[in-house]
Amino acid sequence: MPAQVENFAEEIKRLRRCNSDLVSILALPAMWSSGDPLQIVHTLVDALLGMFGLDFVYVRLTESVGNAPIETIRVASTAKELRKTLPRPQEISEALNRSLAHNPQKWPARITIDGEDISTVALRLGLNGEIGVLVAGSQRVDFPDQTEKLLLSVAANQAAIGLQGSRLLSQQKEVAIELDERVSQRTAELAAANAELQLQVGLLQQIPVAAWTTKSDGRPDFVNQNWLEYTGQQLDYVLSGPEAWMTAVHPDDRERISRAFWEGIRSGQGFTTEARFRRARDGTYRWHLNRVVALCDAEGNLLRFVGTATDIEDLKQSQENLRQMTETIPEMLWSASPEGAIDYCNTRLLDFTGFSAEEVMGDGWTKLIHPDDIEQAARAWMCSVTTGSPYRVEVRTFHASDRTYRWCVTNARPLLDQQGRILKWHGTVVDMHDWKQAQEELRITQANLARVMRVSTMGELTASIAHEVNQPLSGIITNASTSLRMLAADPPNIEGARETARRTIRDANRASEVITRLRGLFAKKSATVQSMDLNEATQEVIALSLTELQKNRVMLRAELANDLPLITGDRVQLQQVILNLLRNASDAMSSVDDRPRDLLIRTEPDNNDRIRLSVTDVGLGFEPQAAARLFEPFYTTKNEGMGIGLSVSRSIIERHYGHLSASPNNGPGVTFSFSIPCKPEGLTSDSVFPSQVPPESDAA
């Protein structure tokens, strides 16, 4: 019985101690009013350390300082005195971090640290441990008992509640600070906006045009002195509402400008329009350009509208005078806005196309053009509008009288202000159909003539060769047959065969002489020797060749030296040489597609009172082994060439006491050039030159 009483007394003491510890734990939140997480943790570990007689208490929070979590560990003072039996705090912390897994069920009840066996209780702070973890440790074998485990759990819950409240309080403080900063910033912005607005109002008062502002709903809140003086209205009257200032507008324009005004206000975009305003001093109505823009704050919120009314009456009169003048000019004229929208066409253009002005305005001009030409013309027009470069296209334009499309060239240039900004585009349309058709017919005629000349030249040459060579060839065949019969006789007629062989040789020499005479035939014509300007002669050849070169996509560039001395020679023959070299160069680039087909013709002084002319292409060039044969008769590198062009050209130059040569360029292509003296000695009208350089030649 005494033992039971003693046990009962011990149980009462334990319960009282448990109740006291529970009250102490529940009183901890009263000490955490500051909301500092570290203060909560330090109070907690100190209380638990003394309350349960623990060897250490460890707390790790998920909140971090920098990249490291917040960790706190306290060791009992008695344990400090027994360092030989209890590891140091750093060793305990490292061991706990290795042992504590994410799953609470895997947390060990006992851990070994530096050889010491320690009982632990690990508790999550928060429902899922989102706040952190609390670990209590003791070397007691019976730690923890049921009461200790319960009290530690209550302490962990209290700490979790306190830390959660601390976190919320911290967040509230941050939100409050951020709100204070935003309010301060917004206040500063509004103050700056108000100062800016006052400055703008001051500027509007000073500008030399009528100006005003309205609130975001369209109610006027400011007009400058220029408006009041021009319209004669009173300030109070104008500020009474939009209908008041609109009484200054011409009655015929009032409905239109009212509609534009309210549409601009409702859209928040403002507007631009033209209207007539009454001038108070003489009662006349004058045209004004009205522009209204929206004024917004830094966040894009609409504050008010700012408007100006600029007198453009004189400009209108000038435009009307210009329009009347353009109607009398016998050309098709048009104009466009800086953005490229057509805003005027004269009557001549409308009569030519049969379209009305309303149909052509804006981008309606595309209706006038052949469908196949619209894309090209539109692309070129937008490029000019964007860059400000002059506009020029050749397109087929609808012709109303015969309902056909005629070739026209359209040109336009921008009208610029002093700052270089485009104010207007002015353009012309010129009917060039007949000229273009004549050019095409001329090109066809030239091609036909060239073909006829080639056929005629080849036919005559073939007939001459056949006629002249036929007789000696017939003699050679006859003599050869006779010689064979004499040698086949029994006995052979050796002497007769020898005589027949001599006649065969004679006929072969006659055939050779025929070829020589045929070559000379090309080189016999009396020269017309005269003093001439080589640059002028060259420009004439260029003019004749330009259409053909453009057709072949050849870009010709002429570099003709100034102040060249006059030369003495046959103008026609030298021009034939130049023409032959140009056509050679064009043909040499016919298969070039990977680079521009550039062709350069140059004249320049040469040594010893001579003049040099050179033609440079970027064609395929010629093989090194062909260089020595380029000027041989009947040698050609072209499938359709006759092989006599360069040969005859060299003959012409040599008879002018000059030299014709060819050399490969450093890059692609070849340069042909000739050098002749300005006043060759012995050159007279009795000199003999080749009669013609055929249009085709033999350069590759």
Brief sketch in words of this structure:
The protein has 700 residues and is of the alpha+beta class. 46% of the residues lie in helices and 24% in strands.
Describe this structure in words.
Helices cover 46% and strands 24% of the residues. By secondary structure, it is α+β, with helices and mostly antiparallel strands. It has five domains: 2-172, Beta-Lactamase (2-Layer Sandwich), CATH 3.30.450; 207-311, Beta-Lactamase, CATH 3.30.450.20; 316-431, Beta-Lactamase (2-Layer Sandwich); 437-521; 529-677, Histidine kinase-like ATPase, C-terminal domain (Heat Shock Protein 90). It has a five-stranded antiparallel β-sheet. It has a five-stranded antiparallel β-sheet with strand order 7-6-10-9-8, with helices on both faces. Helix 16 packs parallel to helix 17. The protein is flat.
List keywords for this structure.
Beta-Lactamase; 22 strands; 24% strand; 18 helices; 5 domains; 5-stranded antiparallel β-sheet; 700 residues; flat; single chain; alpha+beta
What's the layout of helices and strands?
Elements: H1 2-27, H2 37-51, E1 56-65, E2 68-75, H3 77-81, H4 89-99, E3 110-113, E4 116-125, E5 132-138, H5 146-206, E6 210-215, E7 220-223, H6 225-231, H7 235-238, H8 242-245, H9 251-267, E8 271-278, E9 285-296, E10 302-311, H10 313-328, E11 332-336, E12 342-345, H11 347-353, H12 357-360, H13 371-387, E13 391-399, E14 404-416, E15 422-431, H14 433-488, H15 494-521, E16 529-532, H16 534-551, E17 554-560, E18 567-570, H17 571-588, E19 597-606, E20 610-616, H18 645-655, E21 659-664, E22 670-677
Parallel strand pairs: 17-19
Antiparallel strand pairs: 1-2, 1-5, 3-4, 4-5, 6-7, 6-10, 8-9, 9-10, 11-12, 11-15, 13-14, 14-15, 16-18, 19-20, 20-22, 21-22
Helix pairs in contact: 1-5, 2-5, 14-15, 16-17, 17-18
